[in-house]
Each structure stands twice: as structure tokens, then as C-alpha cells.
Amino acid sequence: MMTFRKISAMGRGDLIVAYLTEGEPDPLHDFRTEPGKVPDGDGSRLTSYYTGRDGRASWRPEMPAKVAAALGIDASKPPKNAELSKLFEASNAQTGEAWSDAQRKISAYDLTMAPHKSITLAAEFAPTAAEGAAIWHAIDKANDDTMGYVARELGYARRGHGGEDGAEKGDVAWVSFRHTTARPTVEAKDPASGQTYLIDSRAGGDPHAHIHNALFNVVVTEDGHVGSLDTKRLRSRVHEFGAYFQARLADNLRQLGIAQTYDANEQATVISAVPQDICDFFSKGRRQVVQAARDYAAKEGLDWEKISIERKQRILSMAGLASRHEKERDADEREVWKRQADELGWQTRSLLGSPIEDASAPALRHEQAYEFAARHLAKEFETSAVLDHDKLRMYAARGLIGAGIPGGVKDIDAVVSMIEQRGLTLHDEHVSLVSTLRNDRVRVTNSAQIRIEETLAREAARASRDRSASLSDEQIRTAIEASGGHYDDQHGQSQKAAIYALGRGGKLSMLTGVAGSGKTFLLKPLVAAWKADTTFAPEGREVIGLATAWRQADALAEAGIHDRWALAPFLMRLEKGDHHVTENTVLVIDEVGQIAPRQMLQLMELQRRTGCTINAEISQKGCTSG
């Protein structure tokens, strides 16, 4: 998986460094040159990751010289805390000067890669240090490959204010921090600056391999221009990057001969030999440390929100230690984990074997990934009319977790091309995909959806022209007077005009308005008028309230609607014959914009068959009632 956080340039760099390095001081020597021996011959690097990797920072591999010079870093030496502190304040690591004339609110983006818990446990409980190191190296290589992909996609320097003059390709830099533990973490606000920081406890964590990659908000172009990252698409593609990490990790583990499968959500690769109950046990978390820290502050008569950030750090550290069992107080964390595994009866063994080579031709791998992606996209289209094109890439990458991704990004491109050309099967119907550009983003719909929307538009036009069930002006006037509402001011006059427009409307009418503009207030006299209308039945008209969720539907009680339903159960009852709609029925739909076109078409087909009236409401930004 991959998550991301913004790092504020206005924050204190030393506190950000303390979190990412887990409070570790500068290394006395370069851990990348430590001696060691492991099966694949890369002993210096692999043993270092297994024997002492927590919190250690390392620069981007093959750091481009231009961006290194702009940031003031020497990529041949391990990062030092003082240098990192300046960088996280958007300053040169050596001089402390700003990276460029343009002020930055964001100094970096923390992109965090995390494998499934089974992979963490396979590394932590490996029978030999070499095997644990080899698994960690597989994680590390997948991380570096993914960050290279991120750099390729986001490494564009924005030109002009907010990028209004476009973007230019350039080089970027990041620093990686490898963590093995998930410790209780709290967001703590510094009362002096108003900035919020992450602070974690030094005790009470579970095994959890993850790598924080601080991608600095700086891009250096070929001509030496220093700009900021073009992060417009980061949020929409974060899941694709996470899937790419999982696919590369799966390939790396196959090279170690480790058998894998998908997780329950088909989003990550899982080591098959690690039992799920063991994964669940070591995923329990220790959040009581955070509450213990707050309780400690309260007992001391301190206001947690007002004490300094340094005091919060000290209290969290003490609370973390206090939360551990008495016999574990002086034990190494890994010793505690080993004892717990023994008590659970989990007998670890070597998972390494001969490389699991995929003999499939690229076309077969792509076919497998296409089938995976098409199946998941069909599920997405069941509830969404339009998808971001980036979701095609995300599902293609997830399909390649199982199929293999030796071709890297080219494999994703190939699978996406197959999806675009072939389409997919939706509700037992083959549909084509149609892409459009909206607000600088590529969006995708399908031919069935287009047909639904075209049919829906025709049905809506037909129903809106049918005024055979409209209320008379006298009926509306009587209901307004009986409601006791006040319509004297300008807003009241607008509301009154809207009531008349809806009451006189056809068998489909719609009311739009900003949230809080009084749409429910407008319904009260109309509901009363419909209930008093004996045109179709002597007992008056039946009014039913509908919404996508029960809570929304229940809110229609304020308008005097007593028969209320969530839409899906209502449609199901109609299908079973447990509910009947006639020409005498008025369906009042709250927030119709939340209803999928396929369901809305079902309602319009119901209207055609029965002659019922549909009155729909929708909240729209910038609209007024009427």
C-alpha cells in the first residue's frame, strides 16, 4: 500500500526529523558499507537493513547532481539530522537559504510504502539474519522502483503562479526512512506555532515494515530552473503507485522462491506460509499509550492541548514504557515478539526456495491482468457512472501483482490499452469505454451508461411535459395559507414562487437549491396540498419520501411525509410486489443527485408504467431555490 502526507515548510524541521528517524542520532559510520554476507552477494547493504535499519535515512539512489546541488546535499554520505531539518523547512541543507525565490508552503511529501503484515513477519521471524535481510532487500528494491516511477510522473517544475504557465520536466530528490515497527502515534499541536506534528512512542509497537519517502517539493530542470512539484495528480494516482509497489514486491519475492497470493481485497501480495491469525495478532496496535499520555497530563494538572511539543514528546515516551507488561519493561522489542510467537505456537521455517520463474509470455500475463482489471472495473461501474481514467491504471497494476510485472510501467500501459480497446462485460452485456476530458482530468464512462443517460433524458422530458396531475393555483394558495409560513421578504417571495412552480409542474419536477436554503420548508405546503387532492382517490394522494440512505429519508418527516424509504429497499419491495405505486402516488426524492442513473431510470420507467408523480430535490453549490 501507499499513503501520503504533506510536510509543512513552516514546521520545525527537527521535530519532523525526530519522527522520521525515530529519535536516532546521526550514524557514526556509513551503514551502506557495513560488512556482512548474504546469499546474493550484496552483503554490505542487506545485512545493514536487517541488523540496524530503524530510522536510518538514505538518499535517493543515483541522485541527480543538479538537484543535489540545489538542495545542498552530498549524496555520497548518509544524511545528517541537521541537514534534514533544514530541508524540511524548505532550505538548503548547507546554507539554510531558500531553495528559490518562490516561497513554498509544502517542503516535502511523505510517501509511505508498506507491505502486507505477512511479509513483515516473514522478515522479522526469519530463521537467519541473511533470510530476513533478503526479504527486506526485496521490499527496498520495490520501494526504489516505485519512487522512480513517482519521480517520472510528478517530476515537472511548475511555471508561473500556481503552474498557470505549464510545467517542465526536471529532476527530483527524496530521502527514505526504513521502519520496522508500528508504534502508537498521535497528532500533537504545538501551541507556540499552531503547527501539528506526528509523535510516536518508543515502546509498545507491533512488527510493521514500512518505508517513509520524503519527496522534496523541488524540481530542477535541464536549464537549472528550480521549481516546485506538479502534484496535481498525486492524490488520484496514489493507489496506482501503491499497486505498482505491490507488483514489484511480488516479483522480487518470487525471485527468492517465496510463494504468494492476493490479500482478501485483492490489493496486496501476501506470503502464503504466514497464518492469517498470526497476522491478526501482530496487527492489534497499542493505542492505549496515547490515552495514557493524556491521562498522565491530566493527573499532573496539565492541559494536553496547551503544553509544549517537547513536553508532549516526553510524556508519550513515558506512557509507552509504562504500558508494557512488567516482565517486558527491560526486554528488547524483538525479544517480546519472539516470546509472543512462541506462546502462539507459531513455528517459523525458511521460506526461501528456487526462483519462481513465470514462463508465461507477456501476452498471457497481460491477458490475466486484463481479466482482473475488467472484473473490478465492472464492479465500479455498478455504482458510478463515470470513473477517473487513473482507475484503469490502478486496476491494471493490481492485476499485475498476480500476473507479474517484469516490464515495469510498460506492462501497465499494455494492460490499460487492452481495457480501452476491448471494453468489458457489465450486467452480462459487453460495453465499450468512452473517455472525455473534464476539468483537465480524463474521465471514463461506458456505452451502456451513455445509452442509459440518453434514455433517461428522453423519459425525463416526456414526464415533465405531462401536467395531468398538476395542482391548481387555488390548491396551492390554500396550502400556503394553512402552513403559517411567512413569505413577505425577498427570500420568502422566492420560496413562494418555487412552491407554485413545483405544484404546477409536470409528473417530473425538480427543485435545486443550496444546502440550508429551505427546500424542506417549501415541501410542507405541497405535501399538504397533495394529501388534500382527491382527483384520483377520495382519501387524497399518497406521498412517499425516498433518499439513498434511511437517515436522509427520515429527515423528510419534517415536511409531513410519514411513509419514508431508502431507495434500494423500496425498489426491491416494488420488484417483489410488496409495495404498489399508482397514478395517485407522489414520490418525493431527497438529493436526487446522489442516485445512480441506472436507479433513476428504474424510477422513470416506474413513472411511465403507473403514471405516478416524481418530485425531486437536489443541493447544488451556487444555486438558489426556485
TrEMBL record:
Domain TrwC relaxase: residue ranges: 42-343
Name used for this protein in its record: Relaxase domain-containing protein
Organism, as annotated: Acetobacter estunensis
